[in-house]
Structure formats: C-alpha cells, structure tokens
Backbone:
C-alpha cells in the first residue's frame, strides 16, 4: 500500500478516529500531560493494537518508515495505545520496541513516554534514508530512550523491494533516498562502534545476541 498522507500531513478522518479510539480499551498505566490535556497510556490486546496501527499508518506522515502490522507478532508483546488510539508502541518479550507511531496533531509523544518505555525496552530498529547523518530518528531515540547505535545495514533497497514491491520502493526512493536499517540498544557507558552489515537478518541476529 502507498498513501499520499505519508508525504503530506493529513488529519485522521473522524470516522477512522472513532474506530481507533474504540480499540484503546485496557488498564491505564501512565498519565500524560499533552497540549490537548491529560491522556492515558493503556495496555491493549495485540489484535486491537494491530488494527489501530493499520488504520493510523495509512494517514501517518512518513508512514512509509513504519513497517506494516503484518510484519510483527503483537500477540507476544506488550502493546500500548493512548486513550484516543492515535499513538502507541509495542515491546516484545525479548525487549524489542516495535511500531512506535503518533498521529496526534501535537509532537513529542516519544519523549513523553521515554522513561516508561526505557524501563521496558532494550533494543529497536528503525529505517533511515538519504543522508544518514541528517536522519532525525537516531537523535530522537538517543534523547527519549537513552539508546545508542550499534549496527546498520548498507542498503536495503533490494530486500525492501522483495518485501513490499517495486512500486513501494520506487516511491520511497523518490521521497526519501536509499533505505537502510539502524539498530539501537539501551546505552551502557561509551557508545560502541557501529557495525555495518550487508543484510538485515545478520544485523538483527547480531543485536539479539548482543543483548541476550
């Protein structure tokens, strides 16, 4: 799927907003003070999170940087949504943070949940593209969660073409540049040297073993 909203900021339609809000049902674990007032971060079922993510992703600015819900197993993860269903993330049993997203009209969701997430997550992977040094995601994750970079892939154009199709990658390249995956882990002392890998799976296994 390719969405125009990935490249032009678009508000979540009212009917879709009502659906994702209905999915954000579960115990409240954290109260956040947002520009719209107090909101609750709720623990939700994996299926509900998957459905909310799928709806939100279509209207998410830079949604092409977020893997579709089908790429992850949320049934074996702790999944969290804001009480309006427009923002959330998941943390797998082995500490992988997954699918951090926000369709809120205000910014700063990652920093708001930073301490809460950093207590539970030990690693994450994100897509970076174009001039890697200018990518905002690594800086955000360093500041919000205290993570450091440990591994990166050279160029995932070919593998992403196989996973998502040529049209998706062609559009991604046009708007963002060549994609790579950057792996980060919870920081411990000095930042380690970033290891470069030819393929995603080798990098993933390296980081999994590093954090066992």
Residues:
């Amino acid at each position: 799927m390719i969405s125009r909203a990935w490249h032009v900021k678009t508000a979540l339609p009212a009917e879709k907003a009502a659906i994702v809000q209905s999915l954000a049902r579960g115990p409240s674990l954290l109260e956040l003070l947002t520009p719209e007032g107090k909101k609750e971060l709720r623990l939700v079922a994996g299926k509900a999170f998957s459905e909310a993510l799928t709806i939100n992703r279509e209207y998410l600015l830079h949604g092409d940087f977020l893997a579709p819900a089908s790429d992850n197993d949320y049934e074996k993860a702790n999944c969290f949504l804001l009480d309006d269903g427009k923002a959330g993330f998941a943390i797998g049993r082995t500490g992988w943070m997954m699918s951090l997203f926000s369709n809120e009209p205000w910014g700063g969701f990652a920093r708001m949940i930073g301490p809460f997430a950093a207590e539970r997550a030990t690693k994450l992977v994100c897509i970076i593209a174009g001039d890697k040094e200018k990518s905002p995601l690594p800086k955000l994750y360093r500041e919000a969660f205290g993570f450091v970079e440990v591994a990166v892939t050279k160029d995932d154009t070919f593998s992403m073409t196989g996973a998502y199709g040529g049209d998706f990658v062609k559009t991604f390249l046009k708007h963002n540049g060549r994609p790579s995956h950057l792996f980060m882990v919870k920081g411990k002392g000095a930042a380690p040297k970033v290891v470069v890998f030819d393929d995603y799976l080798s990098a993933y296994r390296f980081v999994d073993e590093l954090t066992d």
